[in-house]
Amino acid sequence: MLTLLLQEGAENLPSLAAEEEPVEKTLSLFDLLMSGGLPGQIIILVLFVLLFVAIYIYFERLFAIKAASGMDSNFMNQIKDNVANGKIEAAKVLCAQQNSPVSRLTAKGISRIGSPLEDINTAIENSGRLEVYRLEKNVSVLATIAGAAPMIGFLGTVIGMVLAFHQLATSSGQAEMGNLAEGIYTAMTTTVAGLIVGIIAYIGYNHLVVRTDKVVHQMEATAVDFLDMLNEPV
Protein backbone atom coordinates (compact mmCIF):
# COMPACT_ATOMS: atom_id res chain seq x y z
CA MET A 1 0.00 0.00 0.00
CA LEU A 2 2.83 2.39 0.87
CA THR A 3 4.51 1.62 -2.43
CA LEU A 4 1.30 2.38 -4.32
CA LEU A 5 0.90 5.75 -2.58
CA LEU A 6 4.49 6.70 -3.38
CA GLN A 7 3.98 5.84 -7.04
CA GLU A 8 0.80 7.91 -7.21
CA GLY A 9 2.59 10.81 -5.55
CA ALA A 10 5.45 10.60 -8.00
CA GLU A 11 3.00 10.58 -10.92
CA ASN A 12 1.28 13.71 -9.56
CA LEU A 13 4.52 15.67 -9.17
CA PRO A 14 4.84 16.71 -12.85
CA SER A 15 1.21 17.88 -12.90
CA LEU A 16 1.71 19.89 -9.71
CA ALA A 17 4.88 21.45 -11.12
CA ALA A 18 3.03 22.31 -14.31
CA GLU A 19 0.22 23.91 -12.33
CA GLU A 20 2.62 25.96 -10.25
CA GLU A 21 4.72 27.10 -13.26
CA PRO A 22 4.52 30.90 -13.42
CA VAL A 23 2.81 32.39 -16.46
CA GLU A 24 4.87 35.01 -18.25
CA LYS A 25 3.20 38.37 -18.53
CA THR A 26 3.25 39.63 -22.11
CA LEU A 27 2.93 43.25 -23.11
CA SER A 28 2.64 44.58 -26.65
CA LEU A 29 4.87 47.41 -27.84
CA PHE A 30 1.90 49.75 -28.20
CA ASP A 31 0.68 48.99 -24.67
CA LEU A 32 4.19 49.50 -23.35
CA LEU A 33 4.50 52.90 -25.04
CA MET A 34 1.03 54.04 -24.00
CA SER A 35 1.18 52.84 -20.39
CA GLY A 36 3.46 55.61 -19.19
CA GLY A 37 0.72 58.01 -18.16
CA LEU A 38 0.01 61.42 -19.67
CA PRO A 39 3.62 62.77 -19.45
CA GLY A 40 5.03 59.64 -21.11
CA GLN A 41 2.35 59.70 -23.81
CA ILE A 42 3.14 63.33 -24.61
CA ILE A 43 6.85 62.53 -24.92
CA ILE A 44 6.11 59.52 -27.16
CA LEU A 45 3.82 61.66 -29.34
CA VAL A 46 6.55 64.29 -29.76
CA LEU A 47 9.04 61.56 -30.72
CA PHE A 48 6.63 60.12 -33.28
CA VAL A 49 6.26 63.58 -34.84
CA LEU A 50 10.05 63.96 -34.97
CA LEU A 51 10.34 60.51 -36.56
CA PHE A 52 7.81 61.44 -39.25
CA VAL A 53 9.63 64.72 -39.97
CA ALA A 54 12.99 62.94 -40.15
CA ILE A 55 11.73 60.28 -42.57
CA TYR A 56 10.02 62.89 -44.76
CA ILE A 57 13.11 65.10 -44.98
CA TYR A 58 15.35 62.11 -45.65
CA PHE A 59 13.40 60.80 -48.63
CA GLU A 60 12.63 64.28 -50.01
CA ARG A 61 16.32 65.22 -49.95
CA LEU A 62 17.40 61.79 -51.20
CA PHE A 63 15.25 62.08 -54.33
CA ALA A 64 16.38 65.70 -54.86
CA ILE A 65 20.07 64.79 -54.57
CA LYS A 66 19.61 61.76 -56.80
CA ALA A 67 18.02 63.96 -59.47
CA ALA A 68 20.83 66.51 -59.11
CA SER A 69 23.54 63.88 -59.57
CA GLY A 70 22.14 62.62 -62.86
CA MET A 71 24.10 63.98 -65.83
CA ASP A 72 24.96 62.83 -69.33
CA SER A 73 28.52 61.47 -69.35
CA ASN A 74 29.09 63.17 -72.71
CA PHE A 75 27.89 66.55 -71.46
CA MET A 76 31.26 68.27 -71.08
CA ASN A 77 32.50 66.93 -74.42
CA GLN A 78 29.51 68.51 -76.15
CA ILE A 79 30.08 71.77 -74.27
CA LYS A 80 33.73 71.80 -75.37
CA ASP A 81 32.80 71.21 -79.00
CA ASN A 82 30.19 73.98 -79.00
CA VAL A 83 32.47 76.50 -77.27
CA ALA A 84 35.43 75.62 -79.50
CA ASN A 85 33.26 76.18 -82.58
CA GLY A 86 31.88 79.44 -81.24
CA LYS A 87 28.37 78.02 -80.71
CA ILE A 88 27.77 79.75 -77.40
CA GLU A 89 23.98 79.76 -77.67
CA ALA A 90 23.95 76.04 -78.49
CA ALA A 91 26.05 75.42 -75.37
CA LYS A 92 23.58 77.44 -73.26
CA VAL A 93 20.65 75.47 -74.66
CA LEU A 94 22.45 72.21 -73.83
CA CYS A 95 22.97 73.39 -70.23
CA ALA A 96 19.29 74.36 -69.94
CA GLN A 97 18.24 70.90 -71.14
CA GLN A 98 20.26 69.13 -68.44
CA ASN A 99 18.80 71.15 -65.50
CA SER A 100 21.31 69.97 -62.89
CA PRO A 101 23.75 71.76 -60.57
CA VAL A 102 26.64 70.89 -62.87
CA SER A 103 24.86 72.25 -65.93
CA ARG A 104 23.87 75.45 -64.12
CA LEU A 105 27.46 76.03 -63.04
CA THR A 106 28.61 75.47 -66.61
CA ALA A 107 25.92 77.83 -67.91
CA LYS A 108 27.12 80.51 -65.49
CA GLY A 109 30.67 80.10 -66.78
CA ILE A 110 29.52 80.19 -70.42
CA SER A 111 27.60 83.41 -69.78
CA ARG A 112 30.85 85.01 -68.59
CA ILE A 113 32.96 83.98 -71.59
CA GLY A 114 34.92 87.00 -72.75
CA SER A 115 35.52 88.24 -69.20
CA PRO A 116 38.81 87.74 -67.35
CA LEU A 117 39.37 84.18 -66.18
CA GLU A 118 39.36 85.30 -62.55
CA ASP A 119 35.89 86.83 -62.95
CA ILE A 120 34.62 83.61 -64.54
CA ASN A 121 36.04 81.57 -61.66
CA THR A 122 34.41 83.88 -59.08
CA ALA A 123 31.04 83.65 -60.83
CA ILE A 124 31.24 79.84 -60.88
CA GLU A 125 32.20 79.73 -57.19
CA ASN A 126 29.29 81.97 -56.20
CA SER A 127 26.89 79.88 -58.23
CA GLY A 128 28.35 76.74 -56.65
CA ARG A 129 27.62 78.04 -53.15
CA LEU A 130 23.98 78.57 -54.10
CA GLU A 131 23.75 75.04 -55.50
CA VAL A 132 25.26 73.54 -52.35
CA TYR A 133 22.77 75.51 -50.25
CA ARG A 134 19.91 74.07 -52.32
CA LEU A 135 21.26 70.55 -51.93
CA GLU A 136 21.64 70.90 -48.15
CA LYS A 137 18.18 72.41 -47.64
CA ASN A 138 16.60 71.09 -44.41
CA VAL A 139 19.38 68.51 -43.94
CA SER A 140 20.44 70.32 -40.78
CA VAL A 141 17.00 69.54 -39.34
CA LEU A 142 17.96 65.84 -39.41
CA ALA A 143 21.09 66.62 -37.39
CA THR A 144 18.97 68.54 -34.88
CA ILE A 145 16.52 65.63 -34.53
CA ALA A 146 19.41 63.17 -34.15
CA GLY A 147 20.68 65.17 -31.17
CA ALA A 148 17.36 66.25 -29.65
CA ALA A 149 15.39 62.97 -29.81
CA PRO A 150 17.54 61.05 -27.29
CA MET A 151 17.47 64.01 -24.91
CA ILE A 152 13.67 64.27 -25.19
CA GLY A 153 13.42 60.54 -24.49
CA PHE A 154 15.70 60.89 -21.49
CA LEU A 155 13.53 63.78 -20.27
CA GLY A 156 10.53 61.44 -20.33
CA THR A 157 12.47 58.87 -18.33
CA VAL A 158 13.48 61.43 -15.72
CA ILE A 159 9.87 62.59 -15.40
CA GLY A 160 8.74 58.98 -15.01
CA MET A 161 11.36 58.30 -12.36
CA VAL A 162 10.37 61.45 -10.44
CA LEU A 163 6.73 60.37 -10.48
CA ALA A 164 7.64 56.83 -9.41
CA PHE A 165 9.69 58.01 -6.45
CA HIS A 166 7.02 60.57 -5.60
CA GLN A 167 4.57 57.69 -5.34
CA LEU A 168 7.02 55.88 -3.09
CA ALA A 169 7.46 58.96 -0.90
CA THR A 170 3.75 59.74 -0.55
CA SER A 171 3.00 56.14 0.43
CA SER A 172 5.45 56.33 3.35
CA GLY A 173 7.59 53.61 1.77
CA GLN A 174 4.66 51.17 1.59
CA ALA A 175 4.23 51.25 -2.21
CA GLU A 176 4.12 47.86 -3.90
CA MET A 177 7.39 47.01 -5.60
CA GLY A 178 5.51 45.63 -8.59
CA ASN A 179 3.81 48.97 -9.28
CA LEU A 180 7.06 50.83 -8.66
CA ALA A 181 9.01 48.59 -11.03
CA GLU A 182 6.28 48.89 -13.67
CA GLY A 183 6.45 52.67 -13.46
CA ILE A 184 10.23 52.62 -13.83
CA TYR A 185 10.39 50.34 -16.88
CA THR A 186 7.54 52.26 -18.48
CA ALA A 187 9.53 55.47 -17.98
CA MET A 188 12.55 53.84 -19.62
CA THR A 189 10.54 53.27 -22.82
CA THR A 190 10.78 56.97 -23.64
CA THR A 191 14.57 56.70 -23.66
CA VAL A 192 14.36 53.68 -25.95
CA ALA A 193 11.99 55.53 -28.29
CA GLY A 194 14.22 58.62 -28.25
CA LEU A 195 17.32 56.56 -29.08
CA ILE A 196 15.54 54.82 -31.97
CA VAL A 197 14.43 58.13 -33.47
CA GLY A 198 17.88 59.64 -32.92
CA ILE A 199 19.67 56.71 -34.55
CA ILE A 200 17.38 56.79 -37.60
CA ALA A 201 17.87 60.55 -38.01
CA TYR A 202 21.63 60.26 -37.50
CA ILE A 203 22.04 57.53 -40.12
CA GLY A 204 19.82 59.43 -42.56
CA TYR A 205 21.77 62.65 -42.02
CA ASN A 206 25.14 61.03 -42.63
CA HIS A 207 23.89 59.25 -45.74
CA LEU A 208 22.61 62.52 -47.19
CA VAL A 209 25.91 64.23 -46.38
CA VAL A 210 27.81 61.55 -48.28
CA ARG A 211 25.47 61.81 -51.28
CA THR A 212 25.73 65.62 -51.22
CA ASP A 213 29.53 65.49 -51.11
CA LYS A 214 29.55 63.36 -54.25
CA VAL A 215 27.50 65.98 -56.12
CA VAL A 216 29.75 68.77 -54.79
CA HIS A 217 32.86 66.94 -55.98
CA GLN A 218 31.19 66.46 -59.34
CA MET A 219 30.55 70.20 -59.55
CA GLU A 220 34.14 71.00 -58.58
CA ALA A 221 35.53 68.63 -61.20
CA THR A 222 33.28 70.14 -63.86
CA ALA A 223 34.30 73.70 -62.89
CA VAL A 224 37.99 72.79 -63.11
CA ASP A 225 37.41 71.07 -66.46
CA PHE A 226 35.57 74.12 -67.79
CA LEU A 227 38.29 76.56 -66.67
CA ASP A 228 40.98 74.33 -68.17
CA MET A 229 39.06 74.38 -71.42
CA LEU A 230 39.10 78.20 -71.42
CA ASN A 231 42.85 78.13 -70.66
CA GLU A 232 43.66 75.92 -73.64
CA PRO A 233 45.55 77.75 -76.33
CA VAL A 234 43.56 78.50 -79.44
UniProtKB/TrEMBL annotation:
Name of this chain's protein: Putative biopolymer transport protein
Key words of the record: Cell membrane, Membrane, Protein transport, Transmembrane, Transmembrane helix, Transport
Record's keyword annotation contains Cytoplasm: no
Topological category with respect to the lipid bilayer: Multi-pass membrane protein
Family annotation (InterPro entries): ExbB/TolQ_transport (IPR050790), MotA_ExbB_proton_chnl (IPR002898)
GO BP of this protein: protein import
GO cellular component: plasma membrane
Family named by the database record: Belongs to the exbB/tolQ family.
Domain of life: Bacteria
Domain MotA/TolQ/ExbB proton channel: 98-220
Transmembrane portions of the chain: 38-59, 139-164, 184-205
Organism: Leeuwenhoekiella blandensis (strain CECT 7118 / CCUG 51940 / KCTC 22103 / MED217)
Primary localization class, coarse: membrane
Subcellular location(s) of the protein: Cell membrane; Membrane
